[in-house]
Amino acid sequence: MDIHRCRFVPYPASAINAVAFSHSSLPTTLASRPQLLKHVQVRLAIGRANGDIEIWNPLNGLWHQELIIPGGKSRSVDGLVWITDADEETSNGKTILGKSRLFSIGYTSAVTEWDLEKAKPKTYASGQHGEIWCLGAQPPVLGKNGVVLPSARKLVAGTVDGNLVLYSTEDDDLKFVKSLIRTPSKNTKMICIAFQTRNVVVVGCSNSNIGVYDIRNGTLLRQMSLGAGVPGAPKSIIAWSVKCLPRGDIVSGDSTGHVCIWDGKTYTQAQRIQSHTQDVLCLAVNADGTQIVSGGMDRRTVLYEPRAGHAGRWSKVFHRRYHAHDVKAMASFEGKGMSVVVSGGPDTSPVVYPFRTAGKENHRVLSHLPQQTNLQSAPKARLVISWWGNEIRIWHLLHPARRLLDGDTTGTDIRKNRKLIAQIQVQGESNITSAAISADGTLLLASTATEVKAFQLHYDGTSQIHIRKVEVTGASHGATKVEISPDSHWAFWVEEGVKIMIARVITTESETGLVHTISAPRKLPRIRRVVPKHLALGGLGSYDRKVSQVAFSPDSKMLSVADLAGYIDSWVLRAPGELQNGTEDKSDTSSSDSSENSLDESEEEAAERWYPNPKGKLLPKLDTAPVVLTFSPGHNEEDGDYTLIAITASKDLFVFNPLRGALSDWSRRNPSSKLPEQFRLSRDPIKGVVWQGPRAWVYGHSFLTMLDLSQDLPEPSDTGRDGAKKGTKRKRHDHNAGAGGKINKEHSLVPQQIKAATAPDSNEYMDVDMDDQKSVGASSAYEDDDDDTDGGELQRLRDDATTNGEDARKEASKPKTWNTYQYRPILGIVPLASKPPKEKKKKNGEAKQETVDTLPPLEVALVERPTWDLDLPARYLADGEWER
């Protein structure tokens, strides 16, 4: 494989402004009914400064990014709040789990509710007030034994002009109700908010005060003063964050670096802890109120616990520096065996660290890059497209990498082997959700939340590119995903997250060249999945039926999609009469869509149509959401079937023969337990696959693995087929709280070690920078397998790709797997067309092929986007100094 290692494709990741879990801890009502725990859909929402909202599934520590809702022009997300309604009991004794709803603010006067299934705003509400700076959700009503009772829940927002306003969420709607209170001073800003009880709210302000209000009548119950600022600092102290402990006490973090504990009954200050050298920006507390975590501008994350033998007193346990910049937002979750805190800031990467087992488990840094790569290629034209915001960039890679490496192209710098030939600005308020380019580089699709747009491209490789807009009818609802078939005859998109739309691309010749037109789309029927109503109506509803993966077969005659629930649907392109009895199998399609799914009888009888795969209903449901869905090149030589590969978020790999509706023989012989250990045990999520004949090059954010599917995988040396050691009973995995796994005993970090590292009998604490791989407790899970990937093991794989097919000895020594961590972090890998090896002349003048290919040549563009290449603001270093 020849690699163009690129960093020229930009992806300006944005700062994290807000994080929120759909359940801060699982409701007490579920503790007595553990059978419902498996149906609770816990999600993490992350809001960024560019308006993007990311939805993550914790998956017991796997952390799968399921969805990105793109922002829009001049938008930002600065606060997120989930509301989970009470459970409902049906007449047949079933329990409908409470519905989860997500709300956001963005320094405007509006509150937005989001539709996760359609990946777009559901509704807005606004009142006669200034910009909203903080938002809180009213706690539910608890009955006996902690059971959540049905009740209306309101949202309370604090504004920049000192207003405290009320919003209603009743009847599955969002409405502005009234303004509760207005502070007399126009310079007073409401910065942060937390509920102490259902009707009492605590608000941190910019005027050195924390106010306690009764939301029923807007009465100010008590005002707590933070004092005056220190000499040389601003006169007023800003309360950046407030939290309430379960027993009613209040915790605040302010601009002086102090964390204050307030008595919840008398509203007096009980304790003041100087734990930060700069502003404390965020706080998190655990479910039982026995742990507090704070994050600040000094990049510190500090843990506090109650002091033994001193009731009501807290002490700092330790602090570390997980982030490379400010710690701006923080949220915690406990339940389902997990206890974690997730934080973020301007360094763009979410960090997960253990809460209950702090100091005993490693932290984990999630990638700042998207799970679904914003990168595609047109191999035949050597074009690469990337997109972000409302802009698409088109690049041309001039010369093949092999010619540059071999020196055949003299005078060309490999770092300058590219040309930016076009930038397309998609008009509208919404950002791009997906984009695709045809293999020949003549058709480009782009979608937003409101429309699908198409562009025809003409580029001969030397002159200026010509771009013409192509009309797309019937795409006024926008799309969450678009794709173009390999033969460029079909345009595909997903409307509202679940509707599969496909349209024929008609190409005609004119005096100026090829002209593309797109016909009216048809909706393809999906297999009806029987989901009990008591589950479909609660939680996140039909969100898990959202289509997340799509794949066309290499001959463009089969289409397959997969959703977050793990279901796979497939369709085949056939002429009438080509299927059995010439009819379509509709036995499993939804009757409610029959009018839209019916075939257009006015079409010509000879026209090809898409039919549901008759054996598609036999494909099993995957245990977790698929992160990769792809067809291998060519057909199965034995039965002419396709080979469909699905890789899940839990690192399970399945190979299907979709026309038979069954697992392939290779997949039966090679269960996931036989996959390479580096692949199975890596916590890095998988992003995509590039094919080289039967070889699958699987990549994630920081690894590249080759799997040869023409050979059986080697049996692990010390494990059996089930993954357990031979001759021993299979043991359960070590307990993992959901972060980075257990710390080795020799790396365990306890308070005594921190104090001893500074000075004997000292109360000073050492800064432990977790970015340093040599830091105590830092995880070093990824180490390079080779010093020079381009010249060492990878070169051997290149040579193997051109091995003489008649050499049995070399054929038997072909590698089955290979792995490297040299490239990181990877935005994406896309294929480019390569020319076959040149023929060389013998001395006698006869032509001779240099090698006989057993594998097709493969050239790819590998794009890295390291965090050090991001444009970040200045950060606080130490001792009052700022980065210059």
From TrEMBL:
Regions of compositional bias (Acidic residues) in chain numbering: 782-791
Region of interest (Disordered), residue spans: 579-617, 712-751, 774-853
Cross-referenced SMART domains: WD40
Pfam families, per database record: WD40
Gene3D superfamilies for this protein: YVTN repeat-like/Quinoprotein amine dehydrogenase
Statement: the UniProt record of this protein carries the keyword Glycoprotein: no
Membrane-spanning parts: none
InterPro entries xref list: Quino_amine_DH_bsu, Quinoprotein_ADH-like_sf, UTP4, WD40/YVTN_repeat-like_dom_sf, WD40_rpt
Gene Ontology CC terms, in alphabetical order: 90S preribosome; small-subunit processome; t-UTP complex
Residue stretches of each WD repeat: 273-305
UniProt keyword list: WD repeat
SUPFAM superfamilies, alphabetized: Quinoprotein alcohol dehydrogenase-like, YVTN repeat-like/Quinoprotein amine dehydrogenase
Single biological process term from Gene Ontology: maturation of SSU-rRNA from tricistronic rRNA transcript (SSU-rRNA, 5.8S rRNA, LSU-rRNA)
Feature: compositional bias, Basic and acidic residues: 793-814
Lineage top rank: taxon: Eukaryota
GO molecular function list: RNA binding
PANTHER family found in the cross-reference section: U3 SMALL NUCLEOLAR RNA-ASSOCIATED PROTEIN 4 HOMOLOG
Protein name per the record: Quinon protein alcohol dehydrogenase-like superfamily
Organism of origin: Immersiella caudata
